[in-house]
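agent> Task received from the user: take the single chain below, predict its 3D structure, and emit structure tokens. No templates, no multimer pairing.
agent> Plan: (1) validate residues, (2) run structure prediction, (3) serialize to tokens, (4) report one or two observations.
agent> Step 1 OK, no nonstandard residues flagged.
tool_call: predict_structure(input=
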Amino acid sequence: MSFQLGPSDSDSESELPFPAPLAQDAFSITHADFSPHEFLASLRNRHQTLEDLRTELRTRSRDLESELVELVNRDYADFVGLGSSVKGGEARVEDLKVGLLGFRREVETVIKNVERTRVEVKKELAIKEGIRKEKVLVRNLLALAQRLDELSALLLLDGASTGPPGFLEDGESLTSTRRLRKLVAAYVYVVEFLLPKVPSQHPFVKAQQPRMTKIKDTLLIDLRSALREARQEKDGEKILELIKLFADLGAESVAVKALKGTKK
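)
tool_result: status=success, residues=264
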């Protein structure tokens, strides 16, 4: 605690030391739970009368008021400028709103254009896919027609008495195992590979059904003839191979009847 000496006086009381003025930060209220009673109690060691303390507090209050007025006067121009800058802000906000609405319409237009383009592209892709499928179908139909023509020629169903060049080797008969094996393989290829690739209700497929039936029936006739010859020759190996060819055509029952010497 610091003291200062008062001015010279004849009275003994004026010659006594008294406390220094309160510091300005002693009045700083930095906490919401500031208590005046606790503040006064903290001054008990100042050896100062209550009247002197009251006078000092009044003086300090006037000083604070003066500082506050000075602060307000100093920053008044800034406060006025802030108000002026805020004035007219509604128009700016409205302009911004109009701009945002315009931007939103532009975005919506872009979205619509993108969606329209997407639909058009999807449509074009569907058309392209349809064309691709048509091409595949045409190729499969051509392959089917070509194979049926070859089978008809090899089975002499086109009215010819001899097959195409290379149809038979020198001295080879129409009931040779080699020839029948090739014919059965060609027919199975048509039934199990080519036909599943085309719609069963396609007009061309329907139109070829009688032809395919005739091809199969002719194949079975040739197989029965070959089986009869093999039985006469007692060629067990050839008989087993011919039975397998019957099975490839799904005609096991026809082979059994042929082995029993009965007709279909």
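agent> Step 4: summary for the user.
The first strand starts at residue 3 and ends at 4.
agent> Done.
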